């Protein structure tokens, strides 16, 4: 066998190995995507069964790594986003190595609805917005509380289906998701472990107050807001924290992040992880 043939055979074997490896990777990705789709559909079906009167949603669900979940974090995204947009949070929490409790993570996807400020363009949202950043603007009361019911159903699912103790469940969200989380905490009858509200607000003060439950008045709340937020003004967020304290919420911690816009900074995320640890491992 001459040198040319030897090189040619060696190259052919290497090329075949490369093709097999690529196919294996593609198969793995496809399997993972299929599994995510299956989990999303299962989540949607389960919520549908629990409540025929509220909107149904799919969700990205990431079970506790390597063991049965002992706690749950349900985190609700903001306008135009999806559950996938926050699905990196479990990895960040794992990398911190601060929390040892096995956590079930749920990142629900908002339905696509027409948004008035976007000329009726349909996009993922938990409720319609008629005017941005104005607490006195017209509000989508029905859509808002339907989304609160969705979050309550997700909490109920963790308790009944996954046997998570209520005091080990944390709800939270960003922007619209924070607004939904705060109102859900204020109006639910089940006492849970905690609530995280990032760049949040409460435009339905009268309605929330009329539905107020005393179950979570001493439940820890972490609220964070950037001073340079151009979407939800910092003062709007701060007044929301003052409103919830006026309602009787005793353990609300409002943290200010100078220069941060409508996003979560590294410092804020570190504070969120510490809050989760304090709630779950106190």
UniProtKB/TrEMBL annotation:
Which Gene3D superfamilies does the entry mention? alpha/beta hydrolase (3.40.50.1820)
Q: Name one GO molecular function term.
A: palmitoyl-(protein) hydrolase activity
E.C. number, please? 3.1.2.22
Please provide the Gene Ontology terms (biological process) for this protein: fatty acid metabolic process
Q: What keywords tag this UniProt record? A: Fatty acid metabolism, Hydrolase, Lipid metabolism, Serine esterase
Q: Where is the Phospholipase/carboxylesterase/thioesterase domain?
A: 62-278
Reaction catalysis annotation? S-hexadecanoyl-L-cysteinyl-[protein] + H2O = L-cysteinyl-[protein] + hexadecanoate + H(+)
* Cellular component per GO, a single term: cytoplasm
Entry similarity comment:
Belongs to the AB hydrolase superfamily. AB hydrolase 2 family.
The entry's function note states: Hydrolyzes fatty acids from S-acylated cysteine residues in proteins with a strong preference for palmitoylated G-alpha proteins over other acyl substrates. Mediates the deacylation of G-alpha proteins such as GPA1 in vivo, but has weak or no activity toward palmitoylated Ras proteins. Has weak lysophospholipase activity in vitro; however such activity may not exist in vivo.
Q: Which PANTHER family match?
A: LYSOPHOSPHOLIPASE-LIKE PROTEIN 1, LYSOPHOSPHOLIPASE-RELATED
Q: What is this protein called?
A: Acyl-protein thioesterase 1
Its source organism is: Candida tropicalis (strain ATCC MYA-3404 / T1)
